[in-house]
Amino acid sequence: MAGQRIGYVRVSTVEQNAGRQLDGLTLDFTFTDRASGRDTDRPELQGLIKFARDGD
Fold it and tell me: How far is 20 from 48, CA to CA, in rounded Å?
């Protein structure tokens, strides 16, 4: 069985478009954090790490 295709995006401002970073990709799940590059609190990244399995 093939793994899931999972994407992760971080944008730092409301004006930035997370979707544009994923254009052309076929993904099963996407995790997006909206935070400054200096902010190391990234709950969606932590969620992705917990969600992903071997082979994803």
Answer: 20
Nearest to 26 by CA among 7, 47, 45: 7
The DSSP secondary-structure symbol of 20 reads H
- Per DSSP bridges, beta strands 29-34 and 6-11 are parallel
Q: Which secondary structure element, helix H or strand E, spans residue 46, and what is its range?
A: helix 43-51
Give the chain's length: 56
- Indicate which residues carry an active-site annotation: 12
51 contacts 6 by C-beta, under 8 angstroms: yes
Render pLDDT for 1-41 as a digit per residue (tens, 0 to 9). Answer: 579 999 999 998 877 888 888 899 999 999 999 988 888 88
